[in-house]
Write a structure and sequence with these properties.
By secondary structure, the protein is an alpha/beta fold. The chain contains 12 helices and 20 strands. α11 links the parallel β14 and β15. α1 crosses α4. The longest helix is centred in the last third of the chain and has 24 residues. It is globular and about 60 Å long. The N and C termini lie far apart (about 60 Å). About 0% of the residues have low confidence.
Length: about 450
């Protein structure tokens, strides 16, 4: 007699915010799938909907609240998790019908809440990995060929505009052997590019006292950014480092880029250049001779691409500070730049600083910074015309394809548009002759 399988409950997910939140969503869904749950691509088919919220800025909180409201209107059975979970009273005051609220990376709690809201029938045919570790991730929310790899949680810094430590705690690094095992699994499943993420990648392993950990394959690996980057470079074709603070030991990573073990790309959140503003921001390493180090890095690895973000309109920022930033940008010649207008966020020390900048002035300063950085980007991209660069393919159509160069992270940087490329496959890494460029993107043909 045939066994009739019980119908598994279906879970929907709305994931907001940064790639670190996306990794949390992957881990939660992987655990739930292992517990016998199915995934729903829409509200209508879900027995319960998870909303993984962002709470970094007030605008992000409002977006999260809107997403919660939409999920309640469309489905009605909603569990909230993520960074804004620390403000459970705010969420419940606006949406008293939410089933549960849990905080950032509280995997066990959110999984338990799903079990309570929509119990899964116990079945050896549905429970894929009974008792598996919450950190085991086999369900991806990114395309097959690239994956985010989170190496730590939390942050030890206390920047005056940031509430991340209150949301996610102090630095908590994962063991390097566990990170490498995950990387090997991802590559074996088709990942070609690993995007290393954390709150502070440069600080990785500090809380582990940079200890050595044995590997099953023999030897050991030290819990340190440089050693981890080198080991990852031996596993994946492309390894990209994000959220890197410019500590002195970052210099040791640049030779790995020159050797081809790690992509020549650093995502460094400088936030500003004016010493006066950086002091008010309480930014770490604000006395580093950054421009000298950028020159040194480029002498070792000429193709290194530096991406960064800057905040304009911080309390007390003067016109002199803005001119300092613009002059600094001219000299630094960063490849990719994003800018944000300062926005107070509940709980941040910066809210109490004197001399707030009027909104109209913020807008004017933001426009000047973006105009300057767009011109720098256009010139740097124009210099690549005529060169042949490696490109990873993200999409393939009937006539062409879209990819990214080593200087482009997915979602946030530019793209490379290819003609005569319909024969390529997603995930291919191919040499491309660059034929044209604009302010943000490149155009070329596979060689």
């Amino acid at each position: 007699m045939a066994t009739v399988l019980p119908s598994p409950p279906r879970v929907g997910m709305v994931s907001l915010g940064c790639p670190k939140n996306l990794v949390d969503s992957e881990r939660i869904l992987s655990r739930l799938r292992a517990d016998g749950y199915a995934m729903s691509p829409d509200y209508a088919g879900a027995d319960v909907v998870l909303v993984n919220t962002c709470g970094f800025l007030d605008s992000a909180k409002e977006e999260s609240l809107e997403a919660i409201g939409e999920a309640i209107a469309e489905n009605g059975r909603v569990i909230v998790t993520g960074c804004m979970g620390s403000e459970a009273d705010t969420i419940r005051a606006r949406f008293p019908q939410v089933l549960a609220v849990t905080g950032a990376h509280q995997y066990e709690q959110v999984v338990a809440s799903v079990h309570e809201a929509a119990p899964a029938p116990r079945s050896p045919y549905l429970d894929l990995v009974p008792g598996g570790a919450v950190e085991d991730t086999d369900l991806k929310l990114t395309p097959r060929h690239y994956s985010y790899l989170k190496i730590s949680e939390g942050c030890n810094h206390r920047c005056s505009f940031c509430i991340i430590p209150s949301l996610r705690g102090d630095l908590a690094s994962r063991r390097p052997d566990a990170i490498l095992r995950e990387a090997e699994k991802l590559v074996a499943a088709g990942t070609r590019e690993l995007l290393v993420i954390s709150q502070d990648t440069s600080a990785y392993g500090l809380d582990l006292r940079h200890a050595d950990y044995p590997l099953k394959s023999g030897g050991s690996v030290r819990a340190h950014m440089t050693d981890l980057a080198r080991a990852l470079g031996r596993i994946a074709p492309w390894v990209r480092l994000h959220y890197v603070y410019p500590y002195p030991h970052v210099d040791q990573v640049i030779p790995l880029m020159a050797e081809g073990l790690v992509l020549p790309y650093l995502d460094i959140p400088f936030q500003h250049a004016s010493p006066a503003v950086l002091r008010r921001m309480k930014r770490p390493a604000n006395d580093a001779k950054v421009l000298e180090r950028l020159r040194a890095w480029r002498s070792i690895c000429p193709d290194i691409a530096i991406r960064s973000t800057f905040v304009v309109g911080f309390p007390g920022e003067t016109e002199d500070d803005v001119r300092y930033l613009l002059d600094w940008l001219d000299e630094a010649q960063l490849d990719r730049v994003g800018a944000f207008r300062f926005e107070p966020v509940a709980g941040a020390a910066a809210n109490d600083l004197p001399d707030p900048v009027p909104e109209a002035v913020k807008e004017e300063r933001y426009a000047r910074v973006m105009e300057r950085t767009a011109a720098i980007s256009a010139a740097k991209l124009a210099a690549k015309v005529g060169r042949t660069l490696p490109v990873i393919i993200d999409e393939v159509g009937d006539e062409g394809a879209t990819g990214r160069s080593e200087a482009d992270a997915p979602e946030i940087d530019g793209q490379v548009f290819l003609r005569d490329a319909a024969h390529l496959a997603v995930g291919d890494i191919v040499p491309v002759e660059i034929e044209d460029a604009d302010e943000h993107d490149l155009y070329g043909v596979p060689v």
